[in-house]
Design a protein that fits this description.
407 residues, alpha/beta, 5-stranded mixed β-sheet, disordered N terminus
Length: 407
């Protein structure tokens, strides 16, 4: 594809987001050298060029193919994410496999593989498969063959689509190969991939976390490294899967992740420090509504502690983790103080009428409103409350915005 596939980054030199992206973009460029050309355009000095391609926000990334603006780049913004995303942009939408050796080499990959097996090159099912590959190539790897004999070692003797999960994630709790034999459309193939590609316990990364978190998700974090230590990485994963297999069909999905990739998130969202857990995994649950739970008991090798954690979760006995300031011991003023931990009990009380101000202590507009708010609270009936957004987590069902002029 080089130099037909080209990813320019459009950015002004003073943009903070651009400065954050720049080192990641440079590292990705080094890894992609010879396959995909990455370049930068500074809009402060080349405004005419930026305007010609409709650039209005920064940083903007666009994919060019054969000298033409092909599509916006909407992939990850880490070096690894850019590298993996752009690697999938090179070459054909689906690789043609001619021999069994080609098939084996293709599926022996770090990522999952989707392989269509067809009886000839002119069928409508192959055409539909190739259309789907063109739309989904940014997320998944596709290959196809027009020789049914290529898949006979897998018990396949008719046209179908094979989903090979990554060999590094092979385990005794589920099949490594899933077969799709239903009526083939872009939509049906997309649903099949979505429902089966991750399996019982996928490896969550910075690149796929958003796709996994559309459901309630339990994650075990530990020193996971599938590039250098597959066996060690699967040691704890197998113990999670053994327990997970006992709780199937209850609406909770499971994953494992490298805790080093999520340190800041774990500290901010779950209150877990870098030393928590030691060499043992620590486990969290994040629901699609944003509720968060942490397993406080040490992860035991027999899985019993994880089972107790799940029993408490499904029984509704777990207390949600909420990042909060302490609940005030005295709260007798006309304007009461609310913190995240007391929010539901106070503000969502069905027997009270409440007017609540969400504010930041450093906001000049909030400071200007404060005496007016206090005077009003002293003269009218509804309860008045203050809620500071510093160092707290808002309940996930509430969304508030503070619009301040930074000047």
């Amino acid at each position: 594809c080089f130099p037909s596939c080209f990813l320019p980054c459009v950015l002004p030199s003073l943009c903070g987001h651009c400065k954050k992206l720049a080192p990641e973009f440079d590292r990705a460029a080094t890894r992609l050298k010879g396959n995909v050309r990455l370049a930068k355009v500074d809009c402060t000095t080349h405004s005419e060029t930026c305007g010609r391609f409709g650039v209005s926000g920064y940083p903007t990334l666009k994919i060019f193919r054969y000298g033409r603006d092909s599509a916006p780049y909407d992939g990850p913004r880490t070096a690894e994410g850019i590298y993996q995303y752009m690697k999938k942009q090179t070459g054909p939408d689906s690789v043609l496999l001619r021999t069994k050796e080609d098939l084996q080499a293709f599926v022996n990959n770090y990522d999952a593989s989707i392989v269509g097996v067809f009886s000839g090159a002119d069928g409508s099912r192959l055409a539909e498969f190739l259309n789907a590959a063109g739309l989904l190539r940014e997320q998944f790897r596709f290959a196809h063959s027009t020789d049914l004999q290529l898949a006979e070692d897998h018990g396949i003797h008719s046209e179908c689509v094979l989903l090979f999960r990554p060999p590094r994630l092979s385990n005794t709790f589920e099949d490594s190969l899933v077969v799709f034999k239903d009526y083939l459309t872009i939509g049906s193939l997309r649903r099949f991939i979505r429902d089966h590609i991750y399996g019982l316990c996928p490896h969550m990364t910075l690149e796929n976390r958003d796709r996994l978190r559309v459901r309630d998700l339990l994650t075990a974090y530990y020193d996971l490294d599938y590039h250098h230590n597959v066996r060690g990485s699967n040691y704890w994963r197998n113990r999670v899967m053994k327990v997970a297999s006992k709780y199937g069909g209850r609406g909770l999905t499971y994953s494992v992740a490298n805790k080093k990739d999520f340190l800041s998130e774990l500290e901010d969202d779950f209150g877990l420090g870098t030393s928590d857990g030691g060499e043992l995994p620590f486990v969290t649950i994040r629901t699609r509504l944003g509720h968060k739970y942490t397993m406080r008991e040490e992860f035991t090798r027999d899985g019993q502690s994880l089972e107790r954690f799940l029993d408490d979760y499904f029984a509704g006995r777990l207390k949600r983790y909420v990042k909060s300031e302490p609940v005030p011991e005295r709260n007798t003023a006309d304007v009461k103080m609310v913190v995240a931990e007391s929010f539901d009990d106070v503000v969502n009380d069905p027997d009270k009428d409440v007017l609540i101000q969400f504010y930041s202590p450093s906001c000049p507009h909030c400071k200007k409103l404060e005496p007016v708010y206090r005077e009003l609270a002293h003269t009218v009936t509804p309860l008045f409350f203050n809620f500071t957004s510093a160092a707290v987590t808002l309940p996930p069902s509430h969304y508030f915005y503070c619009m301040c002029d930074p000047k």
